[in-house]
Every structure is written in C-alpha cells, then in structure tokens.
Amino acid sequence: xxxxxxxxxxxxxxxxxxxxxxxxxxxxxxxxxxxxxxxxxxxxxxxxxxxxxxxxxxxxxxxxxxxxxxxxxxxxxxxxxxxxxxxxxxxxxxxxxxxxxxxxxxxxxxxxxxxxxxxxxxxxxxxxxxxxxxxxxxxxxxxxxxxxxxxxxxxxxxxxxxxxxxxxxxxxxxxxxxxxxxxxxxxxxxxxxxxxxxxxxxxxxxxxxxxxxxxxxxxxxxxxxxxxxxxxxxxxxxxxxxxxxxxxxxxxxxxxxxxxxxxxxxxxxxxxxxxxxxxxxxxxxxxxxxxxxxxxxxxxxxxxxxxxxxxxxxxxxxxxxxxxxxxxxxxxxxxxxxxxxxxxxxxxxxxxxxxxxxxxxxxxxxxxxxxxxxxxxxxxxxxxxxxxxxxxxxxxxxxxxxxxxxxxxxxxxxxxxxxxxxxxxxxxxxxxxxxxxxxxxxxxxxxxxxxxxxxxxxxxxxxxxxxxxxxxxxxxxxxxxxxxxxxxxxxxxxxxxxxxxxxxxxxxxxxxxxxxxxxxxxxxxxxxxxxxxxxxxxxxxxxxxxxxxxxxxxxxxxxxxxxxxxxxxxxxxxxx
Length: 576
Prior knowledge:
Blueprint: H1 9-16, H2 23-36, E1 41-49, E2 59-67, H3 74-79, H4 101-109, E3 112-118, E4 126-131, H5 132-140, E5 153-154, E6 170-176, H6 190-204, H7 206-210, E7 214-217, E8 220-221, H8 235-245, E9 264-273, E10 276-284, H9 287-290, H10 299-303, E11 312-317, E12 320-326, E13 342-348, H11 353-356, H12 369-401, H13 409-418, H14 433-445, H15 451-461, E14 466-471, E15 479-484, E16 487-493, H16 497-511, H17 519-544, H18 550-571
Parallel strand pairs: 1-7, 11-13, 14-16
Antiparallel strand pairs: 1-2, 2-6, 3-4, 3-6, 4-5, 7-8, 9-10, 10-13, 11-12, 15-16
C-alpha cells in the first residue's frame, strides 16, 4: 500500500473553521501581528453586503485590516499563511507564540485571505493569498499534495482599499468570502456586530490604546475600556462625563466630580509561581459608577459594561487581554450582583503559560492547580474587603440622599387604620416621646437636617401607632424596637445582610415598571426572599433557644405575634 498524507489539507482546514472564535477574538489575532510589527495605527474596515433577495439577510462579506508597521519581507510573507509558522515561534517575550492564530481566525469566518505587505515605502506591494474553495477543489481532483501558498509576487493593491492603505511600509490583510456573519447569526444586525467588536477590542488592547496606539474600526478610533476603572480618559470616563453633565446624573443628588471617576485600588498583590510572578489587582469601581444601591443594571451601567463584569476576571498576558471570564468558585463562594462593581485583573508573562492554561488560540482559558489555589485564597480576602467598602459607601450615599425616608409610610399608615381593633399596648417605659422622635428624625434625616425639617417629620409620624424606618446603624442587630407612650418605633438596619439581600432587592423591584423587570431578576429575588424568610424563622427559633425556658418566656409573645400578623395581613393589601 502506498504512503498516505497524515492530513487531508483542505478537509482539515474546513474542519478547523469551527475553532470557536468570537469575531473580536478573531480580529484580535490580526491586530496582534500588527502591534508586534511596531504599527502605530491599525485600521479595520468591516464591509456590509446587501441581501441578495428579500428571503436572505444582509451580512458582512469582507473584513479589511491595515497597519503602518514594518511590513513583511518576502520570506516572512510567503510563510504568513502557513499554519504553524511564526517568526516568534514558542518565544516567551512576545504576544504571538504558536503560529496558528491569525490563520485559523480568518478561516473561522471566511474562506479567502489576501495579504499585501512591503518593508520599503518606495517598493511595490508584495502579495500572497489562500482560497479554501480552491484547496478543496484541488483535493477532490486528487491534487491535495499541491495545496499550498504560491511565492509572493508584486501586485498593485485594488483601488477600493485606497482609503485604508498605509502610505509607507505596512501590511494589508483582507478576509473575504465571509459566510458566517449573516444578520441574526452572531448579532441582530451589522451595527450590533460592529459595536460588539469595538467593545471587545477596546478592552482586549486597552494598554496599547492607553499608551497611544491607534485602532480604528470603520473610521472610528477606539477609546480604551478598562474593567478596573484605573486608566484615565477611557470609554467609561466619556460616558460618565456625559451622564453627570447633561444626562440623568444631576438628578441623583450625588456630589460627583471627575476625581470620582477613578476606582479605589483594593489590592495589587504579587503571586509567586516557581521563579516567576503574576500580579493580582482588585479594585472597587468609582463612586461615579457605583452611585447608589439598585442601579447596577440601568442604562448607564450597561454603557459602562458593568453587568458583564459580574464575577469576571481579566487575564492579561504581555499587556494584552487573552481572557475575560468567570472562573468557577474562584471567589470561594457564589457570585452575587454587587460583584459587578469589583474589577479584577491577573497579569502575567508567557513563562507562566502552562499554569494559566494558555492554548494555541487565545480562548478557552483557566488557571490550574497551585496558581488557582493561590488566586482563590487572595481573592476571597480582597473581594470581601471590596464588598465591605461598597456596602459602606452605599450606606453613606443612602444617608446623604435620605433614600429610605418614607419607604414604609404607605404600609404603616394602612396598618394604623387596621390597628384600631387590636388590643391596647401595655408597655411602660421611661423614654420621653419628644426625645425618642428627635433621635428618630436625626437617624432618618441626618445630623445636618435643620430644625424645621425635623419638626415636619415628627409631625407626620408622632400620631401613628407604628413607625418603621430603614436606617444605617452599626452592629449585627437587624431591627431595633422602641416602645414610646403606647406607640412602636421600629428601625431596620440597612447594613444587615437580611436587609441587603432580601428586603432591598424586593423593594427595588416593587418600585420598577413591570416592563423593566427581567424574568431572571424577578426569579433571583424571589428565590433569595424564600431563603431569607425561612432563615429568619430559623434564626428566631435559635435565638429563643438561648433562654433556659423559652416556652414559658416566649409563648405569649408568639401567640400575640401570630394573631397580630394574621389580623394586619387580612386588612392591609395592595397599598404599594
């Protein structure tokens, strides 16, 4: 039997088209080469083709990349389309390493790659190409052994690329016969696909953009997007300026300046692995972005790309992001909504590739073994610190804005009407009503409230049989109850976990328009509410057990509690 090739080139390349690249990740492979070649400007043009008929959808039919780097000599250009070839093969001081990324990325979306390059501004453009359809046809005709890339030849660049062609040295790469970017396949339309690419690329190459390199997509220069909110003059800064100068920001009543656009650095910690070091950076998003509790999914949050940051870690290799993803259980607990305001970055050099699970294409990434354990230990500590700071900040904002004033007013007023038939309270205390309501007014309105504001507040609540207010006070107590002249004053602690994880999310949802509530948000809140209510009863039962004779001590309390709850719930409905 005759010797056969170990690879059927055309069919193998056809199979490798399903490499799983996102469009931005695929485009990033070409940008890598441009930056390695010293390009200061990388221009990208995504060309949309109209639908061929009413039954077909429009699509991106061609993507063009241009850079003003050093260009490729004829030897390098000849091998540029050869899978496995790289002038930086297996090096540990460059972005590229394996020699497969840019080729597989192109084939993931299109069937043809054309490349022009030159190393001398006065020299003609040298040209090579590869066409997968031609390769498959040759293979079917039994000419598979001849599949390859012809030697470079001098060839003028077509005039429809004049607007993007560098004037001096550089390279032009064209992906054509693009057949996997129809509208609705990867995005609802051309603009959505372009915007998604802009968003991802501005984050992946943020260090280069921040340092002055220029990357354009369809004539638009990208601003760096820093998921740590540490860089100046980023996409986020632009959105925040617009929001606080001309948008909804001023209505929030927060004292925000541009000094509040930069994140608070929680930690920058070296992580030693063998003879090499990775660096973990954790930040708490700036006050301008965290604003007040409950705004993590509004229009500004979406523009700042905050929801997608929930639990995400940015892995940076040689100042280039190779993954932005959730790593299961890396926090030592489940990911919660407030985690979206915490920026996390792990930066490393190629010597640590094996520990980070770096593959021959820059995706499908997860830290391994010793490194994973060290990151989990550090993140458990630093993320807790960030969460504590966030809760403290939100508490300060709520107090400053008096956000919770009157939160329970409708219910307490309805309960007051319903309480007319309840037994008369028997509590006797030495607390003077005027002092109790003065203290309550300060807790609710703040220490800077004027006397008239406090007097107005007291007048509104002093005749109610029940007053319930959400206030910020230290300690692990969930509620504080005062009995004053036959009336009950209840303070709920906004710092308590029960309030933060159950009460407040339900309160926020109750105030939202039904069209603005996502099924996921509602489902998550109700599940947590069921957990919290059950745990509330368990905690109460356990608290009773701390007395030697809970039955004797608390039986009457439980009887009254159940009776009053049944009566009030039967009378107070639909007041919110």
